[in-house]
Recover the amino acids of this structure.
């Protein structure tokens, strides 16, 4: 399968998970293309000052890999400065959030995998 960049729709969500500003997302794979293993594989952008509110994961885990920019990451209640090239992983039962702390866009890959495979 090949999906051209022009075929990947851009979605915009305001105040995602109680955060501030807008989250821009491009779904690299749709959930039904992940073989029951996960529900998100996407490219995410947060503009300066925008954030994803702190939230818990139950039944799945989420990994962020920062491609561009720097941020403050909430790792189970502890805020940590992160930057391009850093990876953050939120395990099943843990919580996290992220806030763009840079003066340019924060761009990262987000991957959500189920703890147990779901039937398609």
């Amino acid at each position: 399968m090949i999906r051209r960049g022009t075929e990947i729709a851009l979605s915009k969500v305001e105040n995602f998970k109680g955060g501030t500003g807008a989250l821009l997302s491009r779904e690299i794979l749709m959930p039904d293309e992940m073989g029951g293993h996960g529900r998100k594989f996407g490219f995410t952008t947060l503009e300066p000052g925008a954030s994803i509110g702190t939230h818990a994961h139950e039944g799945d885990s989420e990994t962020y890999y920062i491609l561009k920019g720097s941020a403050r990451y909430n790792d189970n209640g502890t805020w940590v400065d992160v930057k391009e090239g850093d990876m953050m992983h939120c395990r099943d039962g843990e919580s996290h959030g992220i806030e763009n702390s840079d003066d340019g866009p924060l761009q990262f890959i987000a991957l959500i995998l189920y703890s147990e495979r779901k039937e398609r």
